Amino acid sequence: MIIVFFIHFLWWFGIHGANIMSSFYTPIALANLAANVKGAHNFFAGDPMNAFIILGGSGSTLLIAWWMAGRAKSTQLREIGKVEAVPALFNINEPFLFGLPVVYNVNLFVPFIGAPMATAVVAYIFHAIGFMPDIKVQQPWPTPIGLGGYLATLSWRGAVVAIVCAVVAFVIWYPFMKRFDLKTYKKEQEEAKENA
């Protein structure tokens, strides 16, 4: 949880938190992966981040980006959602982070940090109760949702957990993004009236 928090806390300041924190946690995750192959039961092994925690990129933004593309009232949010829709499928969301922006945006601080922390807890619980098998494969980080969870665990249950995590992240994001969308939409309408 500390690792997930700091990745997103740093990102909120515009610092690539995943690159910085991965230099600390990658040796641990790889050692745990090797131990899992030999029979251990570590959750934090291989790359659980991109398989289960940060689906769509830092902040777990996949489904909220898709919502923005199709349902946002604000032109700005809708266009950013359209630009982000495909990259998010591959865990890339810089258009989202810098286009909205999320960086230094107090309106989106809570879901940006809260959604991935919630997905980490959900994935851990599914592993702890034995529904999700151990992570035994280091899947490529841009592997799309579901497929990444499947490859990491070599099980359909890993794919199911990834999808559940994406839905949990969306539920956390939605009220904040809805409010931000309305706020941005009103600002766009006011600017349109001033320029008319």
Automatic annotation (TrEMBL):
Domain of life (superkingdom): Bacteria
Keywords noted in UniProt: Cell membrane, Membrane, Phosphotransferase system, Sugar transport, Transmembrane, Transmembrane helix, Transport
UniProt-recorded name of the protein: PTS cellobiose transporter subunit IIC
InterPro entries in the cross-refs: PTS_EIIC, PTS_EIIC_3, PTS_Sugar-EIIC/EIIB
Principal place of residence: membrane
Membrane-spanning segments: 49-69, 108-129, 149-176
Source organism per UniProt: Lactobacillus nasalidis
Bilayer topology annotation: Multi-pass membrane protein
Keyword Calcium: no
Localization of this protein: Cell membrane
Ranges where the PTS EIIC type-3 domain occurs: 1-176
Keyword Transport: yes
PANTHER family: PERMEASE IIC COMPONENT (PTHR33989:SF8), PTHR33989
